[in-house]
Amino acid sequence: MQEGKQCYSRKEWGGIGAIFILCSLAAWANAAPRKHPPLTTVTVVVTDAASEKPIFQARLTLEFRDPDSRRGKTLSYSAKTDINGKYKFNFIPMEPILVVVTAPDHQSFGRQFQITQQDQVIHIKLRKPQPLR
Fold first, then answer.
1. Does residue 102 form part of some domain?
2. Nearest-CA neighbor of 87 among 97, 96, 77, 95?
């Protein structure tokens, strides 16, 4: 055996490996648990700003931070409104979300909302496009 180097038998190495694994598991188990924000439902209601009639088949996109991501990854949900101009999104974290709405013959809409309550309802009024001059 060379001086300064230490050799382990297979039996000894197995014990060291087990100790390493146990220490790693203990450190992982003792790590601070990640707190997930509470989840709720968010209903988006889209109407025409002038007539206040519901807009059927308006395209909705919700973006929010993935609660399971450590790197701030975002999730995106898309849907279309029903005949009453509504769509209900489930399992949305009570954190800031971005809502984007598009509909034929209307201006696009995009804004960030803070979700602060259970079963939150967001009302969006879309305007007709402005004529070019």
1. yes
2. 77
